[in-house]
Amino acid sequence: MLQPANDAFLQVLKEHLPENVIGSVTDAYLEEPRGKWSGIGQILVRPETVEQVSDLLRLCNDHRVGVIPYAGGTGLVSGQIMESGPVPVILSLERMNKIRAVYPHENVLVADAGAILAEIQAAAEAEDRLFPLSLASEGSARIGGNLATNAGGVNVLRYGNTRDLCLGLEVVLPNGAIWNGLTRLRKDNTGYDLRNLMIGSEGTLGVITAAALKLAPRPRDVVTALLCVPSPDAALGLLSLARSHVAEAVSAFELIGESGLVFLEEALPHIRQPFAQKPQWMVLIELGVSRANAAAQAIEDVFQEALDRGLVYDGVIAQSAGQRNDLWAIRENIPQANRIIGSISSHDISLPLSAIPEFIAIAPTYIAKLGDFRINCFGHLGDGNLHYNVFPPKGESKSAYRHMINDVQNCVHDLVVSMRGSFSAEHGVGRLKVADLERYGDPTKLAMMRAIKASFDPNGIMNPGAVLRV
After folding, report:
1. What is the DSSP string of 185-230?
2. Which member of 117, 317, 348, 448 has the greatest number of CB atoms within 10 A?
């Protein structure tokens, strides 16, 4: 049974850790972006070295005190917020934020887990390299949290999830043992893949303290376009066509619906929109090629053939960096507009690509059986990840529909799982989706997960209640 991080345990910490790394928890560590959860915690530890992380976890394990690993606080499933139970220690890696080394000829960068994603991107750019993980929260998200949640983002289509961008890890286990797996090797067939076990474990098996990350050559020419498509099925046809022209040079392929533009107009009217009449469906596509001045011709060739095939009927191709930023601002501000309007239930789902048009077509009929709602469907179509959010009718508050949250969520997730999809595509499980994992998870998989948790963390101190119920 876990014990609270009380004044007596605080004295234990002060006897073994430098005084300057121990502090009090402020409200910022007890909040999360959507405001759905409010955490508990009194003791904040901000270590500066992996050895200090090791000492902290060993003490917490010996005294059966829970630990909440805290990165940038940008997670959307309450993986960083614990609402109830014995008060935990909050472990923030914000002081472990250095870029340890860059190896441009190897296309590798080594960073502390507390390094901010945007700073890693900048360090790669300084060496004429690209770290392709790109998120709306990259100015505050930290790479340890990105790895712990296997974050996605807009470039997954070309470069993969965070898991695919990592070569090696340094990890502190619950008993304080340090795993020095910070390899830069691309081939290492020496047993179990512990790196990928830790990535996506959401801080429930140990604490990532550093990572060796893959870099990529920077595209020499990039072009962005917002193309109008008659349907999601046509959007998939456009994706196939674009790949046949430029293969893996398609780095982003984002589906945007008319509702996204309507919501922007209602909540963020300063965001410029390029079409006088809102299209029902659009695709934001970005190509990055290795030859200078080749991307513009490539997108024009794709557009012309797509036009001939009836896959597109209009579009805008950015002619400058400012226009490119304006097009991306449409996509990147849709989540903010959603938050302002207030959803009843938001869903981070994935489906087989060929199932997406059918899902988009039939899901509203299932939801309509529950009541009159608005739907905003958008997301990373290229990798099958949709953000499918359900809202009250215009002018009504989400607070009047709180009693329907579970019904709406189950309606969407039941349909997704019946179509062999996932209820969590890129945000993780956290505490928000523990019940979903129990509802939809394969029993054998859940038994394996519990066995792994018990092996690594027999006292259950690591992020208690996240992913697996306590």
Report:
1. -S---SSS-HHHHHTTSTTSS-EEEEEEEE-EEPPSEEEEEEEEES
2. 117
How far apart, in Å, are the Cα atoms of 447 and each of 150, 424, 438? 21, 19, 11
Phi then psi dihedrals of residue 295, to 5 deg: -70, -40
Cα(240)–Cα(413) distance, rounded to whole angstroms? 27
Q: Where are any strands of DSSP class E within 29-83?
A: 43-45, 67-70
Residue 166 backbone class (left: φ over 0; alpha: ψ -120 to 50; beta: rest)? beta
- What are the pLDDT digits (tens) for 292-315? 778 999 999 999 999 999 999 999
Give the domains, in start order, of the chain with CATH numbers.
7-94 (3.30.43.10), 99-217 (3.30.465.10), 221-338 (3.30.70.2190), 342-454 (3.30.70.2740)
E strand or H helix at 101, and its extent?
A: strand 99-103
CA 179, 180, 184, 190 torsion-angle sign: negative
Structure tokens at 180: 């020095």
Identify the DSSP state of 88. Answer: P
- Residue 334: closest CA among 393, 436, 262: 262
178: closest CA among 56, 300, 276?
56
- When pLDDT is cut at 50, 70 and 90, the band that residue 291 belongs to is confident
So what's the pLDDT on residue 159? 95
> How does pLDDT run across 210-241, given as a tens digit for each residue?
999 999 999 999 999 999 999 999 999 999 99
Q: Which of 325, 285, 296, 334 is nearest to 154 (CA)?
A: 285
At residue 96's C-alpha, the angle toward residues 94 and 100, to 5°, is 135
Residue 178: other Cβ atoms inside 10 A: 16
